[in-house]
Amino acid sequence: MLKGISPLLNADVLHALRAMGHGDMLVVVDTNFPADSVARHTQIGRLLRIDNVGAATAVEAILSLMPLDSFIDDAAARMEVVGAPDEIPAVQSEVQAVIDRAEGKNWPLVPVERYAFYERAKSAYCVIQTGERRFYGCFTLTKGVIAPDEA
């Protein structure tokens, strides 16, 4: 246990968050996502896990340490529902609320078509699979910067 750091963030996830640079993207996925096979294509090359919690809880832990990239329009993205791209499932609404709280403003959660999402995930720094069992609990988050302290 570390003071001030969510116990959900295990050593592997903490290492990835620390190693990522500005513009690097991570993927948070549900239990149905082909996480292991997609993770083999990422920079880390292996699957990371935050088990026994849903997507919103995992994203909240991640964003407690990682800022989103304010220089791009798609720093936070969600997998579209097949056949209903404008539908927002409850899991995605919950993650949207977490993102908005973490960033202190309404933040766009950009839709990405399912197969395009798979390809996007392969180019990520890492894939983190959660215990989320609801469908479409899949998101990409791009790391931003932390400004220097004012002098």
Automatic annotation (TrEMBL):
- Output the Pfam families linked to this UniProt entry: RbsD_FucU (PF05025)
Q: Name one GO biological process term.
A: fucose metabolic process
Keyword Isomerase listed: yes
Alphabetical list of InterPro entries matching this protein: RbsD-like_sf (IPR023750), RbsD/FucU_mutarotase (IPR050443), RbsD_FucU (IPR007721)
Any idea which GO molecular function terms this record carries? D-ribose pyranase activity; fucose binding; L-fucose mutarotase activity
Q: Which residues form a coiled coil?
A: none
Cited SUPFAM superfamilies:
RbsD-like (SSF102546)
Its keywords, alphabetically, are: Isomerase
Task: Enumerate the catalysed reactions.
Answer: beta-D-ribopyranose = beta-D-ribofuranose; alpha-L-fucose = beta-L-fucose
The protein in question is named RbsD/FucU family protein
